[in-house]
Amino acid sequence: MTGSLLTVDAVDAAYGSARVLHKVSLRVDPGEMVFIAGRNGAGKTTLLKTIAGFMPPAAGAVRLEGRDLRGIRPENVARLGVRYVFQDKRVFSRLTVRENLELAAHPSGERMSDVVARMLSIYPAMEKFLDSKAGGLSGGQRQILLIGRALTGNPKILLIDEPTEGLAAGVIDDIFRLLSEMKGRLSMLIVEQNLPVVARLADRVYVMKEGKIFQELVTRAEIEATGALERNL
Amino acid sequence: MITTLVYGFTIGGILYILSIGLSLTFGSMRIVNFAHALVYTTGAYFLVVALRTLGLGFLPAAAVATVAVLPIAAGIERFIIRRLYGESLDYAIIATYAVLLIGVDLIKWVFGATPIPLSDPIGRDVGLFGISFPLYRLMIIALAISIHGGLYLFFKRTIVGKIVVAGLEDKDAVRSLGIDVDRYFAIVFLVGSGLAALGGVLYAPITSVHPYMGFQVLLICFAVVIVGGMGSLHGTFLASFALGMVIAITGRYWGPAAETMVYAVMAVVLIFKPLDV
Q1: Which partner from A53, B226, B229, B268 sits 20 to 30 angstroms from A3, CA to CA?
Q2: Which CATH number fits domain A6-92+157-232: 3.30.1330.10, 3.40.50.280, 3.40.50.300, 3.40.50.2300?
Q3: Number of other CB atoms surrounding residue A231 within 10 Å
């Protein structure tokens, strides 16, 4: 575990009396793109929420560069460099695209011109929507805005929940291209059910089932055998 | 009829100044804050103190009374409201209603229960369409419109306003950007409380100051918030003036039903636009 950026160590989490995570352990090394695969209800989103501080672990520990994140409020976890991109393409729909970025820039103090430039570098077509309400964006554009927003302030790791869920095939290609470009430059822990995307991008895959890590796939051969992966979901 | 309309606009202006804080508090914190009525009542009593004990003129007295309420509002937010974030609505209703009851009893203990009349602070009328109206009431209408414009600019142009707008839509997403959104909601709570106190200050010379004045307007304010949409600036503005007009027009033709008609309108709105809480 030495040298890992993020370590999740035997974490349990529960909604009331219903335990959702059972002794979950994983790690993400610097620059790694790690995927979590699993069926609906396997506990993937709960795991990301627990790492991001939105759910307190009932047992175990989450560490960022060795620092225990337990008891730290989500906004402070984010300030430490853990950026959580929620499921469901949750942009601030009543604000413009530029204002969405402005909010992301506010706590980090990063200059808006730099934030906008980065957004346009990853998705130039966003320029014509900068002053439009974010609620009017398509699902793919929303996802790209969310990733652009999360990149503000030099985060250490992105937690991305189902980035291609509900998107058309062409838009998934855009997201795939964006993630490919980011690969190696930033650590990412991504929940994804699109197995071809997982197979092509992952440095490591954790398969979750019923709140537990069921399998860890590390070698390219293991990861690219999506058929085997599908059977295990 | 024009007199009735001006009266309706005056009531609407007061209702807006009072209700907007309630609406934003519910929209942002999901807390039904009965203590808002205490802040309103306290503002009116502080005005009495500033006018009669400190001997100030109306404008400085109004400013002092409004500002003096803020530490009390901050205390309510820090020690009561903040502990209720994320809890069931019932807890907030019980806790803030208890604060209101305790506060009203304290007011009775300090000031007594006898209503205190205040005179029109301007005492001048202006002619409009051949009819004379108290200038003070027209100024309340103008002030309410100005406050709405100011709040609109605040939410549209300032980073604090944008954070609150985003937080009203998705609090967790704002937190995930590293923003302590509760701190900004607390600012909104204080702004809303300041406006509630201002509402009490402005309405005091029209009615009279007594410990139960908050109870009277509280339920009407909730009706405004429900009709206008919780957390909606424009909705609350329109609903305030619409319901103010309902009170004025019903009061002109059937006095006893004036307030009842407000709840009839609220019921119709609830039938077609149920609450989403």
Answers
A1: A53
A2: 3.40.50.300
A3: 8
- One-character DSSP codes across B21-83: HHHHHHHHH----TTHHHHHHHHHHHHHIIIIIS---HHHHHHHHHHHHHHHHHHHHHHTGGG
Taking the C-alpha atoms of residue A176 and residue A163, their distance in angstroms, rounded to an integer, is 9
pLDDT, tens digit (0-9, with 9 covering 90-100), for A21-54: 999 999 999 999 999 998 888 899 999 999 999 9
Q: Do A107 and B177 lie within an 8 Å CB cutoff?
A: yes
Average pLDDT over residues A177-195: 88
Cβ neighbours of residue B109 closer than 8 Å, sequence gap 6 or more: none
* pLDDT tens digits, A107-143: 988 999 999 999 999 889 899 999 999 999 988 899 9
Q: Is B154 strand, coil or helix?
A: helix
Cβ–Cβ below 8 Å for B176 and A108: no
- Domains of chain B by residue range: 2-272
Which member of B159, B172, B173 has the closest CB to residue A106? B159
Domain B2-272 of CATH type 1.10.3470: yes
CB B228 within 8 A of CB B237: yes
pLDDT computed for residue A1 by the predictor: 46
Question: Is the CB of residue B239 less than 8 Å from the CB of residue B201?
Answer: no
Residue with tokens 């979901």: A233
**Does B177 sit within 8 Å of A149, measured CB to CB?**
yes
Interface size A-B, in CB pairs within 8 Å, comes to 67
| A42 part of contact set with chain B, CB < 8 Å | no
CB within 8 Å: A103 and B172: no
Q: Which helix (H) or strand (E) holds B117?
A: strand B116-117
Q: How far apart are CA A74 and CA A53, in angstroms?
A: 4
Q: Is A52 on the interface with B (CB under 8 A)?
A: yes
Rounded Cα distance between A109 and A114, Å, is 11
Q: Do A52 and B174 touch (CB under 8 A)?
A: no
User: Which residue among A94, A102, A108 places its CB closest to the CB of B169?
Assistant: A94
Cβ pair B179, A106 in contact under 8 A: yes
Query: In this structure, are strands A33-38 and A204-209 parallel, antiparallel, or unpaired?
Result: parallel
- B159: closest chain A residue by CA: A103
Chain A residues whose beta carbon lies within 8 Å of the beta carbon of residue B158: none
Please tell me whether the interface predicted TM-score (ipTM) of this complex is above 0.95.
no
